[in-house]
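ASSEMBLY PREDICTION REQUEST
Request ID: AP-0331
Submitted by: J.K., bench scientist
Number of chains: two
Total residues: 1056
Priority: normal
Notes: Please return the full assembly, not individual chains.
Input sequences:
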Amino acid sequence: MAEIDTSLIPDYVAEAAEHLEEMESSLLALEDDPGNGELLANLFRCFHTIKGAAQFVGLEKTSVLAHRAEDLLDLLREGERPLTPGIFEVLIQTKDRLESLLQELDNHQREESEVQDLVTRLSAFIEGGEQGAATASEATAETAQASPPEAASTTEVEETEAAEDSPALPSADWDKEEEYDEELDPELFHIFQNQLVEELVTLRGLFDQLVLSETPTVLLADAAEILERLRSAANYMDYESLVHLYDQWLDSLELEQEKAVEGEEIEVERLKEYIERILERFPQLADRMEEVSRIREEAITTPVPQEAAETKPEAKTPEPVQPEPTPQEEGPPPREPAPEASAEPPLMDAFTTALAESLEETPTNTADPLESVFDEMLVGDLEALESSKKTTAKPSAPSRREEQAKGSAPTQPAELPPRQPTAPSSETAKKAKKTTGIERALKRSVRVDAEKIDTLMNQVGELIVHRSYFNQIFNETRSLQQRFEAAGLPAHELKAFRALSYRFSEAIVSLSRTANELQEGVMKVRMLPISQLFNRYPRLVHDLVRNTDKRVRIEMRGEDTELDKMIIEEVSDPLIHIIRNAVDHGFESVEERRQQGKPEMGTLLLEAYHESNHIVIEVSDDGRGIDPDLVRRKALEKGLITPEELARMQERDILRLIMAPGFSTAQTVTDTSGRGVGMDVVRKNVEKLNGTIEIDSEPGKRTRFRLKIPLTLAIISALQVRVGNHHFTIPLANVEETLRVFKTQTTQIEGIEVIHLRGRTMPIFRLSALFHLEGQAQQEEKFFVVIVNTGGDQVGLVVDELLGQDEVVIKPLVDYLQEGSGFSGATIIGDGRISLILDVYELVKMTALRQARIHQELAKQRRHQIHANPASLH
Amino acid sequence: MTEYYATERAEQEEKERLMQLVGFILGGELFGVDILMVQEIIRSTEITHVPNAPDFVEGVINLRGNIIPVIDLRKRLNMAGEMPVQEKDWILILNIEGRTTGFIVDQVTEVLKIEEAEIEPPPEIIVSGLESQYILGVCDIGEQLLILLDFNRILMVEEIRKLKEVDVGARNTPAASKSVPD
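STATUS: Completed
Returned structure:
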């Protein structure tokens, strides 16, 4: 049985429903415009996404079906197959099937409908185009003879597995004569057979009644209805000649109907002849028909005398057009023609069997198979259901009870009989539930185009800019007031001015409050609990440890912590990398852990919490930790660092080396990690989000990765600084602290200006120099230093003035200005001017480059000096 | 018969379709850009300098909340006689394949109407240092030669990127040659 991750189902359902909707509209549009490549591409994407999601959740049927459809669409998209009506039809059916699977999933947490028939047809189109499809579908004939009746019980996932594993190829030597066999999909064929038997018995009963009946037209109409159903089943199976036969049959039926209206005698034999003709095609069914007749006869001879008379409407009981499992009772073929054996509800048979089976297999859980039988029926012809609702409610209830009493009464659970009489109404209820399954998923969450929210967010951003503008005006008003005061304006005039200024500040406060709330509200719209992310990982861990000698359990804390949906998507990959690393390199084998006196089961802890405007995600493992010596050795081996540099590094920075490009400590390269790509990508991705990443580890005990990411990407808290007459914005996430430094406190080490801060030596860089601007700090004795960090590297940036902290709206720069410039975007400050936002990570990279340049120049100078004055050597 | 002539006349008109151009002056030469590309024309707005940007990118401006790059067209076209950007300069805001970009020009003249048929391919001779690869065509409008610029080419991002690399590279050499752990 497929392993379905039930916790993911609600999200999956909502997502898939959206794609199905899109699929439908694309399909419908495609019908009018078959050559539209964009629609095909869109459909391809939908199927692809559903497939991916289904695989993730563990939905085998959905993913197999969507995968096949995706393959076919790929061919259509590439123009290798024309979009024929046949293909179009099968795509529509595929979409419908996916929808029913989705509904089943929503209601029962499992997939029930079969997909093999569609998979086969899709495969046929993929392999052989239109021609091949016809071949394949008819090739469904050949081994029908050996049909085990018990195979068609309730639909269970595992039953199709074998078939799914080997998508059948269209049989090459298919001759024009249709053969009916179950080679391609035994189960589907079985369902078809069962329906056929049921309906044929019913029909025979109807025709037998016809001779004596006073209302032949009603009976004929019923027969026609059954035939329509059979015809569509045959059509569905792609049995063309059978469909043709049904057409003929329907024609003759119509003829007889006309005769009946005229009051003429009906040639019943002519109608019954068709039954024989069908049995010729399905010789294996003859015995089964007798069997069914016998069972029905037994049912009718129960003490419900009016049953036989009232069975006519029973023929309409929900007998789905879609092939569905209608289980059969096993028994010796009684050979009784049962002339009065009229239509007995197939529902009844299904019921008994399901009940019997449920009692055999899972004696404690009877409700489930019963329910599935109900639901199966509900998938079927709604019209039939309507009519059955009208007429069958009363008679069918006692008969069912009767049947149960016969079949399985001794062990029947007590709560079942009272259930029966209410069955029809609960059917209706379920039907309603079913049809609204997807709507429900949609109603729980309103799905809005992300673009709309972004627009709204932009507007909020504008509002915040306006707010800053108001603030600035207020400050100007205040200074004006102070000037008036200094100028000694009369008190009464000043008073009015003060009052105005006060009211102005009040107004700004309330504007600020509303703006803040609005901003928070809009941000919340984009927020999702991080459990959406965390829930993806237990399965990942499960898959990673499956073929290893490790045991790992995953623990989560703070799954309710919310963050921006966009960020969720962005941190997903980095977290996968970290978790893979932890499982592959972090955890020891069970044996090793035992020797070390650790619990055999390793623990991987995922934790999320808020820290001011940030979310912190921690991934900790209690594995072997990171050995700093190994990191040192590897870094030197790979030439990532020079021995001198290494000697100067602190423990913390050494650990950070694992995030250098090309670094890998793994002794062997495994499937999942160890190729030396990964951690540097993780760092880049996190830093792209203005986030930071920290590693700490205790060798032999644990490793912890700490990701600190801003809650949203659109608006950040930032420090405004001035350099010369330029304004810059530094994300507060990167700011460690700000200092006022005297020039005398700085020293030069190898041409780089450094300061000593709490025992650490920290390089400082003048933004004016980095950006080739004219700054004033150069000359001054005292200047401001903003200590920024990008995870572990800390540098000081020298600025002329700290202007204050503000919420800023990030606006992107055009790509050619943003790339490698040291800026991650720009923002508009209060007075409408533009302030560039520093990309601290990029800047540190640039400073490293600068550092290297200074190094080289110094080296050159030194060589030069030595060269010029060799005597100075001694 | 008259109908026949009517359609012929229509065809004739089609051939002589008028093109409306916004004319502007740059280093004494008259240029034109299709009016459909022009989003607006602004004057004297504060341009924020972007450090480490290509030389010809003058900076960015705030156009009603959107941040738009501004290119000094004269520098971009490597035209002789560079002049410092002045307050009185005009900025043509063009929409080039979805990218809104400002271009600094000396002066905007009037809307010119020319017939498409009159546009000739760019001449071999380069006008005041202007490279012919950026010229769509020229058109003689009497007393002057009108140059139609190929703005798509001017804003070809790949090219800008390459120019920028050269720029940054030049700024950092010779030191940049040594790889640095990052």
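REVIEWER COMMENTS: Chain B is about 20% helix and 40% strand.
SIGN-OFF: pending second reviewer
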